[in-house]
Amino acid sequence: MNKVIITNVTDPVCPWCWGEEPFFRKLETHFPNLITWRNVMGGLVEDMNKNKPADIDSLTYYNKENKDFITHCLETAEKHHMPIKVEGFNLFSETENSSFPLCIAFKAAQMADAEKADLFLYNLRAAAMAEARQAISEAELIAIADESGIDIAAFLDPLNDGSAEKAFWQDVEEAKSLKVEVFPTFVFEYEGKKMPLKNFRDYNTMAAMIKAVSGGKLLPQAVSFSPEALFELMETHPRLAAEEVKEAFDFADLQAMEAAIAPLLATGDLLKQPTDNSYFVRKPAKGMACDLTTGICK
Fold first, then answer.
1. Is 231 helix (H, G, I), strand (E, B) or coil?
2. Is the pLDDT of residue 1 over 90?
3. Contact indicator for 214, 4 with CB cutoff of 8 Å
4. Are residues 107 and 255 in the same domain?
């Protein structure tokens, strides 16, 4: 059966785009192996220095901008419930004043390892909004690529030779051709038929779009929770927010989800990573051991 292609026109620091992740997980579990994702970078923040009043110094200006931005992120989280971290948030500065470097970094990740690029984008969003990391800096971008399993040399080549930036501007042109006015904007495509969808949308709306664009050929499947099903999902998404687990497996509320994963947390098969308003779960890192006879470490 043909897959539905969902083009997601987005930006790494768009809080509403971050809020779509639980619904993406639900789409993936309810339409297994029936979705191809395309992430297109639209470029949300070009240059914040352009908006700085002449009579305000840069430190004061960016302190306020960072505070306003993370406050807005918290406000959006009241609806989407994804993790946000306020303490220490200082993403933007006079020299790190744009989201374009993050968009370009995603294109570099695509060129370095297409299969891991979407994980890089997720980790990039999490670093910026849920971990209060300086995600625009090159050092953090390298760290996020490494955390996503992307070869650093393969990532740095397109990041520095101009090819990733060129690919980003091609994405911007695609966004313009789609007449994108807000992030996120989606295009659902099935067997040549396309249907656009604007703004933050929930699972029910997106599932209805899949049904409509496919002429009823693609319908959601029933899902039930098991540790095996969770760990299978985590093969692709090694870190999941609490809300993502809840949505992916149709739990009625967060309390029901927490009761289901409590045994896995108790045995150490899952670990919690807290944030200000929620938490992630992840599997423990595999330990490394070195054989003293062979000298091989694995």
1. helix
2. no
3. yes
4. no
